[in-house]
Design a protein that fits this description.
Largest sheet: 22 strands, antiparallel
Mean pLDDT: 90
Number of strands: 32
Number of helices: 1
Shape: globular
Oligomer: single chain
Low-confidence stretches: none
Distance between the termini: 11 Å
């Protein structure tokens, strides 16, 4: 820190074996000729290996008017996958070198107007290792946003407007044309699964505006956003809200908004896709805080999703669908002592809507007269909401400036794994997990801190839905981090 200039630099590194599952298929692609490795040479034994995470982050700012920041990460995570019946287990690995450079600037124009600019450039070079084959991808993103803010009516109103551009270019994105586990059995000696490397780009222009106004105990908000996409139809998003505070202890908030989902890579490559998934959300929140030591809130929400698209590892993209999700969130906070604070939150979901439907060509053949005949298969899967109940609670204890501790309890209700092809559905039971964390500052010298973290303290055995089958959940793990601040 020197006058208006301020700088920050951090570095973190971590390594360890996160998945010790022993795999039994260690070779398959071989030299990438027309046939796979023979079944007798595919088998072996090994564990996925060690994961590592490296992260550099830096920031340089000049007052509040100019901030330049950057980040570089190099992460690698090996893991094991298995077929539905569990007979075939293989290693996959994800490497993700990435980096970005970001600039934020602002300029006050009088007392009532502020001009802002934000822009960044990012580059990712993910590598996907599937048994003995490596697929490399490159992704570049350029984003810029200009924002205008002006206060009106002696501070009671705030008008915001702006324009943004996002350009993304992707090279060699892998798109699977086949269901990979089908090819691993000993009866397949001739065929390799189809995977194509695709290039695509995406350009999104957006113009947006929002107005907020305060009138006594009421706050009003309305916003519009117009998106122009190079591959899909233009869309107009709308948002509105009202906040009412009849007393210091009470807040009522009603919000409504629409949004559009970022498309799958496969959608950008499909010529017949012309619309994006749209979500409409309505929520009502009631919060009560009698003092600064306690608060409680309840939020009910309703989501309507139209032109809903899912991607299946076997059947590709689903037919457009619609879904409705009704939910409620409860949260509370209580601070009985100055050094002790407890919190809890609960989320419950209920879904209604048609099954996901996939129509795809299972195989095709050419008749003697030269006509191509396609055998169309239709699959139906129930919509997967994930756990319909989530609970999270914890206690923070800070007896002094140097020491803090946290104990948490997490809960997931039953979850389902819908196997590809819709042949079966497995359900995993509810799960309770206990976590601990403690930090001691200034150990031995000033600005030297020690943090101890324990996940799944009771080492509960549980399963969670994976890509092709159920996988083991995170076991007991302990981590110690020493951090020095300068």
């Amino acid at each position: 820190h020197d006058g208006p200039w301020d700088g920050f630099l951090s570095f973190s590194a971590r390594t360890g074996e996160e998945d010790d599952t022993r795999v039994n298929i260690v070779r398959f692609w071989g030299d990438l000729d027309d046939t796979p490795v023979s079944p007798e040479n595919r088998r072996g034994g090994r564990t996925p290996g060690r994961a590592h995470y490296l992260d550099f982050y830096g920031r340089l700012s000049y007052g509040d008017d100019l901030v330049l920041s950057g980040r570089f990460s190099d992460n690698e995570k090996p893991y094991a996958l298995s077929s539905v019946d569990g007979k075939d287990t293989w290693r996959e690995n994800r490497k993700l070198p990435s980096g970005y450079l970001k600039l934020d600037a602002r300029k006050n124009w009088g007392l009532e107007t502020v001009l802002r600019f934000s822009g960044f450039y990012s580059r990712l070079e993910p590598e996907f290792e599937v048994i003995d084959r490596t697929l490399k991808q490159e992704e570049e993103t350029l984003y810029g946003e200009a924002l205008f803010e002006r206060t009106l009516w002696t501070g009671r109103g705030l008008l915001t407007g702006g324009v943004s551009l996002k350009q993304k270019d992707v090279e060699d994105a892998p798109v699977w044309d086949s269901y990979f586990p089908d090819f691993l059995g000993p009866d397949n000696v001739s065929f390799l699964p189809g995977v194509s490397l695709q290039n695509f780009d995406s350009t999104l222009w957006s113009v947006f505006g929002q107005y907020m106004h305060k009138m006594g105990d009421l706050d009003f908000m309305v916003g519009l956003r117009h998106d122009v996409h190079n591959e899909f139809e233009d869309h107009l998003s709308f948002s509105a809200g009202i906040v009412w505070s009849p007393a210091d202890a009470w807040v009522f908030k009603l919000l409504y908004g629409t949004s559009y989902r970022t498309p799958f890579a496969r959608q950008l490559l499909e010529e017949d896709e012309s619309d994006l998934e749209k979500a409409e959300n309505t929520s009502l929140e009631v919060a009560w805080s009698p003092n600064d030591r306690a608060s409680i809130g309840v939020t009910g929400f309703f989501n309507r999703i139209s032109h809903h698209i899912m991607e299946d590892p076997y059947a590709g993209l689903s037919e457009p669908n619609r879904q409705e999700i009704l939910g409620v969130e409860l949260e509370g906070r209580f601070k009985p002592l100055k050094t002790l604070e407890a919190f809890a939150n609960l989320t419950l979901l209920d879904n209604s809507g048609p099954d996901e439907t996939y129509r795809f060509t299972e195989f095709s053949f050419v008749t003697p007269d030269g006509k191509v005949v396609e055998e169309i298969t239709e699959l139906r899967y129930p919509f997967d909401t994930g756990p319909e109940g989530l609970f999270n609670s914890g206690v923070h204890w800070r007896p002094n400036r140097r020491f803090s501790a946290f104990g948490g309890l997490r809960y997931f209700s039953t979850r389902k794994l819908i196997h590809p092809r819709g042949e079966a559905t497995q359900e995993v039971p509810e799960t309770w997990l206990v976590d601990l964390n403690a930090t001691v500052k200034d150990i031995g010298r000033r600005n030297l801190d020690l943090t101890l973290t324990v996940r799944n303290l009771l080492d509960d055995d549980y399963e969670t839905p994976g890509t092709f089958s159920l996988i083991d959940g995170e076991p007991f793990s302990a981590q110690a981090v020493i951090r020095y601040r300068w």
